[in-house]
DNA sequence: AGGAATAGTGAGTGATTACTCACTCTTGTA
DNA sequence: TACAAGAGTGAGTAATCACTCACTATTCCT
């Protein structure tokens, strides 16, 4: 039944796989240059002339492939939003709920590890998305829709599953989700964006973060 | 001894109190209009002509008080950065460490409550600061300096104090700080910026957030 | 090989930009 | 009251902006 309403999501993600479909070499260079300039200066302060210059292309070439500058932005930031939530749509994620012996910590560790890697590989794209989402209504709507659809249909189910199992406290799922997202985003923002040179053992850092999320920072006697 | 090196910080905050010093009525209107336009469109997409129009002022008047558009931005965003960290410099905060009977949860609740209120009252200003910090090196440097100075001299001391007391786990203070900031920022961003219409009992929400930070989301049996 | 579609070009365009400047108006002081 | 200093003005300016278009180069199908 989920496959009916979420078909568009699956389609969306499938389209992301072959997004290198039929692109000219120059068009690829335009996208690469746009990512550079957008992430460095922000969308509004980025000029099409600089993008063209960095791509080694005439300015008119940009507008052959993209109607407007905003079009170029959306063609870049849109897919990032989808990829950001992609792992929560994978089959493995749904199947996971059928494995009652799977421990929450393994589950959380896997997600954090995966999204940390994703953030590292896509720093500039994420920066562009986060920066422009408040000013581009289309982007905001897309992100909100992706997030709510995924959360209510998948993640919330997973939370309730683990709660029934006794692995998670019986608190409202949205609070569990918010705490987890806060902790994970905080960790990723710190290590990837704020202090990328801060030395750390990735596996241990993941484990400690999940441990704090699960058991808190209070002392033992409590 | 802290009073020597941190004199500049104290001075900075004192200057914020009487920042309404000798300002013309039109100058105040310019600042108000600038806050509006900057937060709506972003600094780069905001035009001085629109700011002047909204302030009911000639465009030249802006440049009588501010050398450049960037000057106007910095005069707005700079003080916000300082006010953001201000409560961690208050005398009460330092004195708190001399009260061994004070419980961590009361401490955390007070901070969260205070910063939540601050965020509500200064939504637009915070939005401007967060949005422009990555693109204005002066702002970034100021925020980093404020944060590190405050953290190492005050908050870290507080964490170690509570650890010695047995109220907090013996984990590296920076990890305690990161977890706390993550959880608090996540809570504030959700309630103030993402879902301001989401109905909630503020006091209970504060209590539940602090409880999750202290004791985690794991089920009792563990 | 031929011809149509698509990719690429770059000079040109009107609109908008941040900022200037010569000027007037207001305010405080002696 | 006289006068200096600052506040306020708005037309003006050079630069830059996103975007267009008439044209050429390349690719692709038959």
From TrEMBL, chains A, B:
The HTH tetR-type domain, residue ranges: 24-84
InterPro entries: Homeodomain-like_sf, HTH-type_TetR-like_transc_reg, HTH_TetR, Tet_transcr_reg_TetR-rel_C_sf
Keyword check for Coiled coil: no
Protein name: Transcriptional regulator
Pfam family membership, one: TetR_N
The entry's DNA-binding region: 47-66
Keyword annotations: DNA-binding
Keyword DNA-binding annotated: yes
Species, as recorded: Thermobacillus xylanilyticus
């Amino acid at each position: 039944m989920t496959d009916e309403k979420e078909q568009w999501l699956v389609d969306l993600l499938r389209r992301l796989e072959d997004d290198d479909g039929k692109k000219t070499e120059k068009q690829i260079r335009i996208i690469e240059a746009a990512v550079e300039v957008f992430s460095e200066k922000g969308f509004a302060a980025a000029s099409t002339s600089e993008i063209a210059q960095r791509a080694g292309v005439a300015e008119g070439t940009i507008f052959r492939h993209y109607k407007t500058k905003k079009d170029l932005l959306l063609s870049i930031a849109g897919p990032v939003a989808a990829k950001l939530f992609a792992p929560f749509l994978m089959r493995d994620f749904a199947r996971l709920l059928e494995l009652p012996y799977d421990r929450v910590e393994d589950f959380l560790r896997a997600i954090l590890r995966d999204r940390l890697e994703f953030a590292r590989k896509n720093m500039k794209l994420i920066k562009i998305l986060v920066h422009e989402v408040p000013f581009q209504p289309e982007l905001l709507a897309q992100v909100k829709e992706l997030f709510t659809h995924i959360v209510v249909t998948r993640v919330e189910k997973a939370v309730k599953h683990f709660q029934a199992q006794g692995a998670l406290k019986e608190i409202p799922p949205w609070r569990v989700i918010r705490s987890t997202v806060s902790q994970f985003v905080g960790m990723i923002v710190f290590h990837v964006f704020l202090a990328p040179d801060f030395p750390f053992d990735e596996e241990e850092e993941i484990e400690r973060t999940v441990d704090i999320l699960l058991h808190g920072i209070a002392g033992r006697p409590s």
